[in-house]
UniProtKB/TrEMBL annotation:
<dbReference type="InterPro" id="IPR052392">
    <property type="entry name" value="Kelch-BTB_domain-containing"/>
</dbReference>
<dbReference type="InterPro" id="IPR015915">
    <property type="entry name" value="Kelch-typ_b-propeller"/>
</dbReference>
<dbReference type="InterPro" id="IPR006652">
    <property type="entry name" value="Kelch_1"/>
</dbReference>
<keyword id="KW-0880">Kelch repeat</keyword>
<dbReference type="GO" id="GO:0016567">
    <property type="term" value="P:protein ubiquitination"/>
</dbReference>
<protein>
    <submittedName>
        <fullName>Kelch-like 25</fullName>
    </submittedName>
</protein>
<dbReference type="Pfam" id="PF01344">
    <property type="entry name" value="Kelch_1"/>
</dbReference>
């Protein structure tokens, strides 16, 4: 099992992202997101991780970004019609491969 964290908090925005391997109890830094974010939301679907919403400092984020673990890269998928704060996602309950 793996857990992913990304972005910052109310003190700062960050583009950094990390993966935690529950079996080895190890954190690994993965590729940076396309932009700094805080208070974003994420979900896994298929073999991808999607992030949307949040803030860039005081500006609201209107992009949906996708992480591909095979290439360790993030790409902007689309711009959403309005900012997503707060928001929720529904997943297909698939997991990301190791």
């Amino acid at each position: 099992s793996q857990i992913f964290i990304m972005g910052g908090d109310t003190e700062f925005t960050a583009a950094s992202a990390y993966r935690f391997d529950c079996e080895s109890n190890q954190w690994t830094r993965i590729g940076d997101m396309t932009a700094k974010r805080m208070s974003c939301h994420a979900l896994a679907s298929g073999n991808k991780l999607y992030v949307a919403g949040g803030y860039f400092g005081t500006q609201r984020c209107k992009t949906l970004d996708c992480y591909d673990p095979t290439s360790d890269t993030w790409n902007c998928v689309t711009t959403v019609p309005y900012s997503l704060i707060p928001t929720a996602f529904v997943s297909t309950w698939k997991h990301l491969p190791a």
